[in-house]
Design brief:
The complex is a heterotrimer of chains A (284), B (315) and C (339). By secondary structure, chain A is of the alpha/beta class. In chain A, 21% of the residues lie in helices and 29% in strands. In chain A, α6 (219-231) links the parallel β11 (211-216) and β12 (239-242). Classes of the chains: A alpha/beta (284), B alpha/beta (315), C alpha/beta (339).
Chain lengths: 284, 315, 339
């Protein structure tokens, strides 16, 4: 029967270890069936349920760009008590897992909210995944001309914990995008910026005029970065963030991921700062 | 009983006024006929809500696991033994609680009343002395409370609290009971008959965990059931997984269970697994000469080792 | 169809005929519990019941079901059809039937239709039995329902006196269950008079009234109030209220290993469990019983209303009857109004 909950089979083509602590890996997945690949049309900001048979499922944000035709990429952090993340990290290249999706709403890139505007992206730690998807998408020659200035501020706890290192370097060196990379604490080889993301934001003070902000990070970073953003004149309707909750079905039926009357899987995960303010307190 | 109730309210009020405790945990009238329920009282004038009757069925001591204030707690015989257990296992400090002991001749089992009413709803129950008048639609009958006692009350050997700071009324008489006759009778059945009984009972279990949550002896911050790495057994109510849950819980509470019966009273599906707990209680008594909740010093046998512990099973 | 009358002694004949085409589920009593079970003859039915212990939502949304399974060889097995035979649920109470309308909003929504639920729903007919003995914990009339409500039913039966039932068809499917040769007679004027009298008397018997007006708005205002510190104190944090509730629908998707491979199972879960919202990082947005109790009340009386326009409660009273510490939702609503 046409199962709503059945994942589509994919092969793990490549696994890249992203950080020094070796607990963040990017999985490159290829659908077994061409039909499944064609049906999986997604937009930046959406997530999918990754499924390892015997372990279960988890919602993971899609890290590859919608224009990366052949494959999907997901960056997953392993938690010691996480059944699925532990199972994923013990896989080898060539393994077979399942993907179900895409689910959720997305950054409104194709609407007048964002087209023709300056885009500021602020990311912290390993929550940078859907922003990476967005950057790849925006920088693609098909899309770049539709947006004005693109600025990215990305911070991690230490240089070893920065993810997508090769891409960060590539973006720093190319034109069409301004990168500010920072770490909370440097090491003996680090020559770049040192400072917490909210502080660097205040230092850099990007202009809020005609700008839409996408911000992703751990709850504590979001809390301390919102205020400087508002101070700089960014309006709450134009600040988009991605919320996280434990999920089971991903389609708004199992009742688990709600914040107030909104389901993070269906009405989110992308919410504006204004929308978050209207949710009952438990949001952040 | 009514005098005890009056005294209870006075004592509780005084405790709050004198600030000897910040909180009184007792029983109050419920919203359904013949129901009482736990209540939390912090203001002296609210103590008139307190009641004491033969329907005070909850074992209040399990709340001691979570409250942080100085507490005055109403305790029956079985409840006081649970409190002794919690003190011994360092879950609560003796000086943080004030035990208001109440002698208890037994609690009426509402499931027995349901059986008698056979589909009618109980509209009113009036207690008097040792009897109770039950009223339902087209039904009115006075019964001896003795006939309606909960099974664990029938074999109770501690009608008076074993530990208390003050006692309501006087100690009541303790009749001799043949505590383990029901267990012995059950144990004498064929093993396939006993196995069939446990499977049948367990088949109704819906894994609501009310039995575990209401038990004063179950206070693990993370129960083995909720662990995901490793997942010890499945969450779904397969018969084998459900039976394992109950068996393991019985083993974890072996030597610590005081047979208060709260677990079987709260079960919505009438799952009756007290026989398992009673059997382990009997075994612990015979093997180690230990009874849960009677001595503040002696540690539970499953938590200690003595050189002369029985060892016939090691062959 | 005009109302019909069937004598109690003839009921068995009619059910036997229906039993050839349908699997009939009716209330039976065992181990002191009343629950719905397939029956072969009317003799097995326990008519004296107030309401079943577990709700009939089990029959559409079972406590656990295998969604699909993967044998070790990794060749997918297609799930078999769920219902081998169409079913009739006989003597379902109007409140439980109405709860299905609420569950439909969740499982049979425009964007995603849950095939497991939908197949069961479409393959099941509901023959309701009006309540002539509502309980003191029933408050269906306050929740836009009532002991004689026809919402979601195919037929409604009403006990008229000791010897007969009056039967009303609500849908064409229900009407088709009554064949020409079945032992029914047309209802007479005096039967209809009797019906009206019994209906009025019964509705008056539902004494428990809960005023729902303004509740949603009030809940919006008191989300952060210390009110919630008070009401959750007694709560054990078990799942009785959620598992026995006609409209609770939270579930988990779990992988279970069996001898032949792996099964993905959908299983009931409860927002009252601490691990319900626990994330792998260790963060739990609903860290204590206070937040979880608040979530339950808000979901039923505020969030569901915002999303679907109706309260997720039919007033069946099972949570009140079965809560080990007698937490009473009617009291909670009263206290909310008075905050």
């Amino acid at each position: 029967m046409n199962s709503l909950y059945r994942p589509k089979p994919v092969t793990v083509r490549k696994i890249v270890i992203e950080n020094e602590a070796k607990d963040i890996k990017t999985f490159e997945l290829v659908f077994l069936s061409k039909e499944d690949r064609e049906r999986f049309k997604f937009t930046c900001g959406q997530f999918a349920m990754l499924s390892v048979l015997g372990a279960g499922e988890s919602p993971i944000g899609i890290a590859s760009s919608p224009l990366d035709d052949e494959y999907l990429q997901f960056t997953v952090k392993r938690y010691p008590t996480g059944v699925l993340t532990t199972a994923l990290h013990s896989l080898e290249e060539g393994s077979r897992i399942g993907v179900r999706g895409p689910y959720g709403n997305f950054y409104p890139l194709e609407t007048e909210t964002m087209e023709g505007k300056n885009i500021l992206m602020v990311g912290g730690g390993f929550a940078f995944t859907t922003l990476r998807s967005t950057i790849r998408y925006l920088l693609h020659e098909k899309n770049r001309s539709r947006f004005k200035d693109i600025t990215v501020l990305y911070g991690a706890r230490s240089p070893g914990e920065l993810i997508y290192k090769s891409e960060l370097k590539e973006w720093e060196e190319r034109g069409g995008i301004t990168m500010y990379i920072t770490v909370d604490k440097g090491d003996e080889n680090w020559e770049g910026r040192v400072g917490l993301v909210p502080n660097v934001l205040k230092e850099v003070a990007p202009s809020s005029e005609n700008t839409v902000t996408l911000i992703c990070g751990p709850p504590i970073m979001l809390k301390y970065t919102m205020l400087p953003l508002l101070d700089l004149g960014f309006s709450p309707e134009k600040i988009f963030t991605s919320l996280e909750r434990r999920m089971s079905c991903g389609i708004g039926k199992c009742g688990r991921c709600n914040i107030g009357s909104k389901y993070v899987c269906k009405d989110g995960p992308v919410f504006t700062y204004r929308e978050i303010g209207e949710l009952p307190e438990e949001a952040l | 009983m009514p005098e005890n109730e009056k005294q209870l309210r006075e004592v509780a009020e005084k405790l709050l006024i004198d600030k000897k405790v910040d909180l009184i945990i007792g029983y109050e009238k419920g919203t359904l006929p013949l129901r009482t329920r736990p209540t939390f009282i912090r203001e002296p004038e609210e103590t008139k809500r307190l009641v004491w009757n033969s329907r005070c069925e909850n074992n209040l001591s399990f709340y001691l696991k979570t409250v942080k204030e100085k507490v005055g707690i109403v305790a029956k015989g079985c409840d006081s033994r649970s409190i002794v257990g919690l003190i011994k296992e360092s879950q609560v400090k003796r000086e943080d609680i004030f035990i208001i002991g109440v002698p208890c001749p037994g609690i009426i089992d509402k499931k027995k009343i349901e059986d008698i009413l056979d589909g009618r709803e109980l509209l009113e129950g009036v207690e008097s002395d040792s009897q109770i008048l039950l009223k339902a639609e087209g039904f009115e009958e006075t019964l001896d409370q003795d006939k309606l006692l909960h099974a664990s009350c029938r074999s109770c050997r501690h009608r008076n609290p074993v530990l208390y700071d003050t006692l309501m009324g006087k100690e009541i008489s303790q009749p001799q009971t043949d505590e383990y006759s029901d267990v012995e009778e059950f144990a004498s059945k064929q093993d396939n008959e006993r196995w069939a009984y446990f499977n049948d009972e367990t088949s109704r279990c819906i894994r609501c965990y009310a039995c575990r949550n209401v038990c004063p002896a179950c206070y693990c911050p993370q129960c083995f059931v909720d662990q995901s790495l490793p997942t010890w057994f499945d969450r779904t109510p397969h018969l084998s997984d459900t039976l394992i849950f109950h068996i393991i819980r019985t083993l974890h509470t072996a030597g610590r269970c005081v047979n208060c019966g709260a677990c079987s009273r709260v079960c919505p599906m009438n799952v009756e697994l007290r026989m398992l707990n009673k059997k382990t209680e009997k075994d612990v008594k015979e093997l180690y000469g230990y009874e849960a909740g009677t001595d503040l010093e002696e540690l539970p046998p499953m938590a200690t080792f003595k050189i002369d512990d029985p060892q016939e099973f090691i062959k | 169809m005009k109302e019909k009358i069937i004598k109690k002694e003839q009921l068995g004949r009619w059910l036997e005929k229906l039993g050839k085409e349908y699997e009939i589920w009716a209330p039976v009593k065992k181990n002191g519990l009343v629950f719905f079970h397939p029956i072969k003859s009317a003799k097995e039915i326990y008519f004296n019941f107030l309401n079943s212990k577990k709700t009939p939502k089990d029959l559409f949304f079972p406590q656990s079901e295998v969604l699909f399974s993967f044998p070790k060889e990794e060749v997918e097995k297609e799930a078999e059809t769920i219902l081998p035979k169409s079913r009739i649920i006989f003597a379902i109470r109007p409140c439980d039937a109405k709860s299905l309308a609420l569950l439909d909003q969740v499982f049979d929504s425009e964007d995603y239709r849950d095939p497991y639920y939908v197949e069961r729903r479409e393959g099941t007919l509901l023959v309701g039995m009006a309540c002539t003995h509502p309980q003191t914990s029933c408050f269906c009339t306050s929740m836009r329902g009532g002991p004689f409500e026809k919402n979601c039913l195919d037929l409604l039966m009403v006990e008229l006196g000791d010897d007969k039932y009056l039967v009303e068809a609500v849908t064409q499917t229900g009407k088709d269950l009554i064949g020409k040769d079945d032992p029914f007679e047309d209802a007479q004027g005096k039967d209809r008079e009797r019906l009206a009298k019994v209906k009025k008397e019964t509705e008056e018997k539902v004494k428990s009234k809960v005023v729902m007006e303004g509740l949603e708005e009030k809940l919006d205002k008191i989300f952060d109030s210390p009110f919630w510190d008070r009401i959750h104190q007694r709560c054990l944090g078990c799942a009785i209220c959620t598992y026995l509730c006609s409209t609770c629908h939270c579930f988990a998707l779990l992988d279970e290993k069996v001898n032949s491979g792996v099964q993905r199972v959908r299983s009931w879960d409860s927002c009252m469990f601490p691990g319900f919202t626990l994330e792998a990082s260790g963060h739990n947005p609903r860290i204590s019983n206070r937040e979880r109790m608040r979530q339950r009340v808000m979901h039923k009386f505020n969030y569901f209303v915002k999303n679907f326009g109706e309260t997720a409660c039919v007033g069946c009273g099972r949570c009140i009857q079965n809560c080990p510490v007698n937490i009473d939702i009617r009291e909670i609503i009263e206290e909310i109004k008075n905050e």
